[in-house]
Specification:
Number of helices: 9
Strand content: 35-45%
Distance between the termini: 44 Å
Number of strands: 35
Radius of gyration: 24 Å
Structural class: mainly beta
Strand order of the largest sheet: 25-26-27-32-29-28
Shape: globular
């Protein structure tokens, strides 16, 4: 279509056409001429699309909120996150001990132990579940209590937007020769999930589980265990097993999803690496066991000096939740927060990496057992431009707190504590060169808060670990507050920071 033809159409039709484009395409159109620029600027629908993309968000399902209401809320929340300016702070009591818990989609779910049953492994089982919908701008907190679960649970996860709770049965793991059972139930009723072809998924494993990581993305569930280690991925809707992988005991590994058809494994080898795999969403009917996933690429970490080695390569990202009204973080717009430890008592660092960069390395349409030769990319070919490595100055408890959601990371107190900065939030979704941001919060500070953009590179000295200084460039902003010193740990989601406090277990919900 020639531009003169497009400009000759009624404005409402031009807007209807432009709404089919993504954010970058809309911005390109607005740069063509003054008329299209004025059309884009004057359309609430197009401005909402642009600002959603700028925040790494996707629109949720329809509700009573108008587009103008959603845009206003989006921009107000952007401003509040930058300034850590809460709409309100609410204390939510949580009965009993918090021994295993998750925060996803505004729902804080925890399990409590059934009590000591006399065996080390048997004592790590749970019988009681409490799900608390945390307060928001318009709703108060509410809870559901399950005093006695039907499943003796060792591990769990939730996906509130699908009303799904996943319970890993501990009985067979302990007593019946390493058979794992995964129960798919609803959070709201504790009944078998109606969307699952089978309410219980089963698999035999060749060793004990040790520590586990359980993740849900849309239609798949992944369970990774470090005693082996091994990984099983099911399509929980169809009950098909899609991936079954076992690795050597050493070096240590960690797992996380990139999407519902791709995952990564961090490997604490020399010099450390990230392996990216794809898999198919169905099991071929003629195949009795899952096809092997396709190894796409290995990303190497900074080279080490002779005699140095990586001892730990941990990773964490927020739980995947489908969009709910009014909007939510896009699956691809996430940041991975990784912990790097060198030698037994050597230095530690944390590394930040965008999920969309990792997905950009995956060829479209690739599933399991594809004819693909995995690539190996040395650190200098990818790391400096796409990561940020910072020195480890905080006592992270990786298995206890959820530090990441979307592209934000909440950091705990530094060690030793800094009374002038008790809470820090890093945001890796920034556009330093943007000049038309409707939320004007340049680098600034108040009496209890501060907001800074960090665009200059970070240099980690080679010291006695690396072969050369490690320079990384991924830009970010840091918002900090100095009035939350009584909370030793924090969790984060789209619209709130949750401070956790022992002594009856209370949650401070500070909403943006």
């Amino acid at each position: 279509m020639k531009s003169t033809v497009l400009l000759g159409l009624p404005v409402e039709i031009v807007i209807a056409i432009l709404k089919w484009l993504d954010c970058r395409e809309i911005l390109l159109c607005s740069s063509v001429c003054k008329t299209l620029r004025a059309t884009v600027k004057g359309s609430l629908e197009l401005q909402y699309q642009i600002e959603l993309a700028a925040d790494g968000m996707v629109d949720g399902p329809p509700d009573l909120m108008t587009t103008a209401d959603r845009l206003e809320l989006l921009l107000d929340r952007r401003r509040r996150w930058r300034m850590l300016d809460w709409t309100r702070k609410v204390m939510v009591p949580i009965p009993g001990a918090c021994q295993a818990y998750e925060l996803a989609g505004g729902v804080f779910t925890k399990l409590m132990m059934a009590g000591d049953v006399g065996n080390i492994e048997e004592s790590i089982v749970f019988r009681h579940l409490i799900a608390t919908w945390l307060p928001s701008r318009t709703k108060e907190a509410r809870s559901i209590v399950r005093d006695e679960l039907d499943v003796v649970t060792r591990e769990f996860t939730i996906e509130p937007s699908q009303d799904l709770v996943v319970l890993i049965d501990a009985d067979d793991i302990i007593h019946s020769g390493f058979v794992i059972k995964v129960y798919l139930q609803t959070t709201s009723t504790n009944a078998a999930h109606p969307g699952a072809a089978s309410s219980v998924l089963r698999a035999e494993i060749s060793s004990g589980l040790g520590s586990m990581t359980t993740r849900v993305v849309d239609d798949v569930i992944g369970i990774f265990w470090d005693s082996g280690p091994g990984l099983i991925i099911w399509n929980w809707v169809t009950a098909e097993m899609l991936v079954y992988c076992l690795w050597d005991t050493f070096p240590s590994r960690e797992f996380d999803f990139l999407s519902n058809r791709a995952f990564m494994i961090t490997v604490a080898n020399d010099p450390g690496s990230i392996e990216i795999y794809t898999f198919s969403g169905y099991a071929p009917p003629s195949v009795s066991s899952p096809l092997p996933p396709t190894h796409i690429v290995t990303l190497q970490m900074p080279p080490l000096q002779d005699g140095r080695e990586m001892w730990g390569f941990l990773t964490q990202s927020g739980l995947f939740v489908r969009p709910t009204a009014p909007f939510a973080s896009a699956h691809s717009s996430r940041v991975h927060f990784m912990g790097l430890q060198y030698n037994s008592w050597g230095p530690q660092f944390y590394l930040f990496l965008h999920n969309d960069f990792l997905l950009s390395l995956v060829p479209p349409g690739y599933g399991s057992r594809e004819a693909w030769t995995p690539l190996t990319r040395p650190w200098d070919s990818w790391g400096p431009a796409h990561t940020r490595i910072l020195e480890h100055k905080a006592p992270f408890q990786w298995s206890h707190f959820q530090y990441v959601h979307g592209q934000r990371v909440v950091l705990p107190q530094s060690s030793p504590p800094d009374p002038l900065c008790t809470l820090r939030v890093l945001d890796f979704n920034i556009y330093p060169t943007r000049t038309d941001d409707p939320v004007h919060t340049a680098e600034s500070r108040g009496t209890t808060w501060r907001y800074d953009m960090v665009t200059r590179p970070t240099t980690v000295s080679a010291g006695s670990i690396f072969q050369a200084d490690v320079v990384t460039h991924l830009p970010y902003s840091m918002s900090s507050r100095s009035d939350l010193s009584e909370y030793p740990g924090f969790l984060i989601d789209d619209e709130r920071i949750v401070g956790m406090k022992v002594g009856g277990w209370r949650l401070l919900c500070a909403g943006c």
